[in-house]
Amino acid sequence: MYKILYIIIALVTIEACSQHSYQSQFIDNLHLKDYKLLHKFNTKDSINLGDLYGKQINDSIYSDFLIIKKTGNNNLIIYSITKTDFHNTLGKENIPINRNDFYGYSILVLTRQGMDIEPRFKIKDSLLKGDPIDIVYDHAKNIFKVLLSP
């Protein structure tokens, strides 16, 4: 009886950890040097929500973004966009982006609590624009997330 209970508890713990495994990712200053600080997100009371860093392809196009919250000497990644994968502290967000011709992102707007980015696709020698993506801070869940249209 106890063995079955321990197995059930272990399985529930493993499942909970796998769903929230992204929550504890840190980046050290050595790896952060590949990124440029672009913006600081704040509440209206000037409380820092996180700092936006981007990995540049050129002057206006970025391949990756990180939103980092500093906790003591640690840099906690609270949101990341790596190529076409979007992650917050709850896990991967399902954003449909064509991976085949993907090139990078341009920043359309940076606000106090979010940003609008636009994917770019390289087809032959042209860069084509994709649909804008809105990333906002959700105060109820205390996370950054993609704002999906109804």
Q: SSE order, as H and E? A: HHEEEEEEEEEEE
**Physical arrangement of strands within the biggest beta sheet:** 1-2-3-4-5-6
Fraction in beta strands: over 45%
How many domain regions?
1
Largest sheet: 6 strands, antiparallel
Number of strands: 11
Q: What is the mean predicted local confidence, pLDDT?
A: 84
Number of helical segments with 4 or more residues: 2
What level of helicity do the residues show? 10-25%
Q: Termini separation (Å)? A: 48 Å
- What is Rg? 18 Å
Instruction: Identify the overall geometry.
Output: globular
Unreliable parts: 2-23
Structural class comes to mainly beta
Brief rundown of the structure:
Helix content is 15%, strand content 51%.
Question: What attributes does this structure have?
Answer:
150 residues; 5-stranded antiparallel beta sheet; mainly beta; single chain; 51% strand
Question: Can you describe what's shown?
Answer:
It is a single chain. The protein is mainly beta. The protein has one domain (25-146). Helix content is 15%, strand content 51%. The protein contains 2 helices and 11 strands, in the order ααβββββββββββ. The protein has helices at residues 2-19, 29-32; strands at 36-42, 48-56, 62-71, 74-82, 85-88, 91-93, 102-111, 114-123, 126-129, 133-138, 143-146. The strands form 2 sheets. A 6-stranded antiparallel beta sheet has the order 1-2-3-4-5-6, with no helix packed on it. Strands 7, 8, 9, 10 and 11 form a 5-stranded antiparallel beta sheet that branches. Strand 1 and strand 2 form a beta hairpin. The longest helix is centred in the first third of the chain and has 18 residues, at 2-19. The radius of gyration is 18 Å and the shape is globular. The N and C termini lie far apart (48 Å). The model is unreliable at 2-23 (pLDDT under 50).
